[in-house]
Amino acid sequence: MRRGHKILWACLLLTFTFVIALPLAAYFFSPVIAHKSLQYWLEQNDFSAVELDMQTPSWNELHIANVKLEKHTPTQIISYQSSDITLQFNPYTLWQEQRLKLLSMPRSDIKITYTTEQSSESNNEMVDLSQALPSVWFYQIPIDAIRIGQVTLQLDYPENQSDWQFIGALLFEDDKLYSRVKALRDEKDFGWGDLNLNKQNQFTFRLLEDEEPFFNIAGDLSFDDKLTLTSAQEIQLAGLQSWRQKLELHNLPIPKLEGTVKLQGKIHFPLQTRFSPDELLKSIQIDQTGKGKITAFNPIPSLEKASAELEGALKFSLKEAEITLNSDTNIQVPELKHPSLKEPIQNLKATLQKPLAIKANIGQLLLDGTLIPDVSPLHLDIEAGAIALEGINVSPIRSKLSLDSIDLAKEKISGSIAIPQLNLSQGEAKFPQLKLSSKFTWDKDQLSNRYQVFSNAPIKLDLKGRANTTLSNGNTKLNWSVQPISLKGIDRTLEAYAPIPKELSVLKGTLFHKGSGTLNNGKFSAQFNNSIRAANISWDETLIEGLNLDSTSRLSTSGKLRDTGSIKLGRVTTGVEIKNVQTSYQYQQRKSGDLLKLKGMQAELFEGLISLSDFEFNPSKPDITSQVKVDNIDLGAVMALERQQGLSGEGKLGGSFPLAYKDNAFTITDGVIKGLAPGGKILFEPTPAVQAYAAANVGLKMAIEALQNFHYEELDIGLNYSEDGTALLETRLKGSNPDWQNGHPVDFTINVEENIPKLIKTLQFADKLTKTIEKRYR
Predict the structure, then answer these.
(1) Do the beta carbons of residue 289 and residue 264 sit within 8 Å?
(2) pTM score
(3) pLDDT digits (tens, 9 = 90+) for 617-656
(4) Are 712 and 678 within 8 A, CB to CB?
(5) Greatest alpha-carbon span in the chain
(6) Whole-angstrom Cα distance, residue 155 to residue 51?
(7) What is the three-class DSSP state of 579?
(8) Cα–Cα distance for residue pair 254/298, rounded to 1 Å
């Protein structure tokens, strides 16, 4: 804006030239001679269309009713018009010093039109600013006081350049200059500017919007190889909003701003520059430091307001700008809203940990409206209040964000983010503290990410993964894996986060997990692979050893889960020892009810093999029917369950029976177990008490005698099991005892009724008692 004033002075000097000579001629000669002489001088200096209307001067004053003239050059046309000009002078001073007392001009119009035929050399016409210091050019003004009511300077450029117009008033008196000027660029009003200068090279300048100053500058001028302004500025950002529209920088995503920025430093101008306001602006160089508080309104849809406390440095020209923000510069968001949040996040704050430098080519911005800043690495410390998501809460967090490489021209950014402490909760339940870190790269439409989730206590968790996202549609592919997790004691560890039955104890084992997922068109699907190796688990009096599990789970885009896998158990001890249990399964989540299928279930029991036919059921309402097949079961092992002294057996059993489970109860109906060829033996050595009891019962005595060394050929057992846990075994034996009745054939039936749950409890108690005694006397 100040450059417009200087251009105005330059254009007015021509007027002052003939104005100085004019009173001398008018005073000593007649007005006619003065008029002819001045007109001749103007024409000799290439002025044309000269119109000059002068009145007869008095001894100390000259009045010019009207003056109008033009000057044509190969590159421009200068038009000047003014009226009602009054010049006051002291004749002696005018003659001796060539000075006037007063120049008064109610209105003056100057227009400079740059023609399209100008050459490249003439288009680069330079202006010398070496005489721009008030201490220099104040003394060159041959007038004590100048009062111009309104002066208009029009700069009319070719079509590919912006036109400028300056309208204002000027007062020069007592070695001080005051001017108020309005600037227009392509007829867009840039508002008013106030300028004050004195001969000590001190100045103040203000820009106004609606009569309110929004830009204030005060300082002084000096020069050596450059013209330098040393100044302090204060900028009210609200006033800059209209300037962005007037400069047609609509493509810049700048929100509504409020606040104050204070700067101090130097502004440099080259001593030689082109005579064009745009070129004058491009020649400015700014080197400033400053600080400020800024508030932005609705910078993004989910953010109503954000505030910033800034401190740093500014280097600027319309060819390049560089902003450096010092560490501790921060941005504060009082409330952040998002559809995924149950409640807005409160008190979000981001603070610079290292200085940030931003460079921009402003010349390119004015040329084609593009702005691609060059940004140095960014390091932020971020604090946020509690985060409430659907189903989960996050305690206030602190994180560190680093953008180590920022290349906006190539649309590529690389960086990392770390959250050293992440505390999650769900209702009253609190989860183990986590540590999160991520390294990411944004490359045009692609965002790639390597992330890690870590927890050292109470469970050591180390999850690492990768994710790749197409930003235009949000489609994402990700995968992850977890370092093996020791399961020893995990039951007691998890008690603080979930209800764990007291009867459960995990004695050993290792968990392996990995997975992958896809987000496509807003729908998520995933696959999870889980494995457990060599786990030992205790449940009350039951011990499970050598548990190995392999599971593959798939989550469909509809949110349904499907899981397939296999389970192997080395040994299950629950009063009865079961070995090498194995099965495969399929689980499917369905609207009609979840479905679990078990296939190939078998185990080693009593030195034989027991297997179940495939079956399926709803886990929430189990109703199971399966056919159980037993093969090569050792008779002696079965008989040992009764713990009857002197009773033993030899032989193998096989058969099948239907097994049903409903309403929390097992039932067996019409099961059949048979002795396998070639038969076997039943040996019974009764105790003296049994012998004494049998002596009074002939039938019992005969049966005991026959069973003391009974060789059976056929053994048929009918098996039924009721809901109350009672098992009824209807046993038929055919065979003989070679030591009894000369091996006479025997065919008899024995019915045995036993409550299996009670029997198992008895066996568990017996095992526990035996181990206790052994431990006591070991």
Answers:
(1) yes
(2) 0.67
(3) 998 889 999 999 999 999 888 888 777 788 888 999 999 9
(4) no
(5) 179
(6) 22
(7) strand
(8) 10
